[in-house]
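[User] I have long wanted to understand how a fold can be written as tokens. Those tokens are not coordinates but codes from a learned vocabulary of shapes. Could you go through the record with me and say what the backbone is doing? Thank you; the sequence and its tokens follow:
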Amino acid sequence: MAAVLELPSDPDRPADSDDARPALALAASSAEPVPPAPPASSGLKPIARLTSDSRVARIVPESDAVTVLLYSSQFARDFIRSDYNFCAAKIAVARGGKVRALETALRDAANWFRKTNEWISRHDARGIELPHETIELIITRPLAGLLVRCLTLFDRVFVGTLEALLAEKISSTDRANILTNAEKRIKHIVQVCMPDNDQYDFDGERRGQ
């Protein structure tokens, strides 16, 4: 019988504010279209550009703080492309209670991932080597570094649950539930980033919640 993981409840998700994420602007060109790059060995579509990269450049125009992230999952790829720079920019300008709210969300997520990976490792499933991609990400503040850490831990959950599934230590339903909860932990951080600084009390609680 496959082991069952008691999954944490879904995190709270504040409503979106008027400060919505900017859409990725696609520049028109009169030159001949360039054929899309072929999928990498991982099967994931290469990331040509990260959304909100200009926003980060305006906030930290001369930042040399970068890190290299390895990822194998489609969720990590989509989050990096569409949400990472938005979160990094919001983290860079966060003040007061919003910093507290972000610290809580990121540390709670990191702790959940750590405990989940410890539970997965106890199944002692045979390791597999999945193809991965690499990308350089700007670290605007230490909390942005913790977000990158959460993405790394997410990918470990992604690979670890696959190993456990192939070893018949967990069921496909178990894996789907774990990954759904893992994705919610990361998406919750985006929701915390959205409201402006003045929408948080000094203790990190969202006003009106």
